[in-house]
Amino acid sequence: MKDYFKNVWLGVWTALIGMRITIDHLFRKNVTVQYPNVHPKDKAGWMDMPSNARNRLYVDMDECNGCNSCARACPVNCISIETVRSVPGDAPPPLASGGKRNLWVSQFEIDFTKCCFCSLCTEACPTGAIVMTTEFEYSSYNRYDLVYNFVKLQNSMSDEKIAEVKEKWAEHQKEKKKEAVEPK
Length: 184
Ligand code: SF4
Ligand code: SF4
Known about the structure:
Helix content: 25-40%
Bound molecules: iron/sulfur cluster
Number of helices: 6
Strand content: 5-15%
Number of strands: 5
Shape: rod-shaped
Distance between the termini: 119 Å
Oligomer: single chain
Radius of gyration: 29 Å
Structural class: alpha+beta
């Protein structure tokens, strides 16, 4: 009989030992939040993401020269850049930092459904135009909303301007061909 009660007590004691951390947490201050209904930023003690966090990319179109280095470095081909060559006398405005540009960047798309946030594109960029940000809240119900065209988002070139520079380049090419066939 004595052994029976001893075993019962041992069973209860062992369970209590196993539950020690759980029981301890029952009486501690709650640190979790019901995200996204409650944002961690609204809670005291929230720390911002570290500045070197790898989340959504950002491209500063005023600093992009259309060199395509980022797209070539991307291991999953999620960057798609379209450029148009400038004709003599109609160069694009210089970079915000002062560098010269010879290409019009008419499209700069990143498909964030494919991006693996490796940051290789930022390493390859010679001007620092493409950077990783701390922005992590950009999920969507529609996967096509996750394809960002930074030219459109920043209105760095209007559709009319894109059509104009393409036409100018086509005209320039035609004249060059004509000159080659009928030299002056
Ligand atoms: S972070 Fe990596 S996967 Fe994403 S666009 Fe840059 S190179 Fe490509
Ligand atoms: S590497 Fe930099 S400058 Fe070149 S196309 Fe990409 S973002 Fe633009």
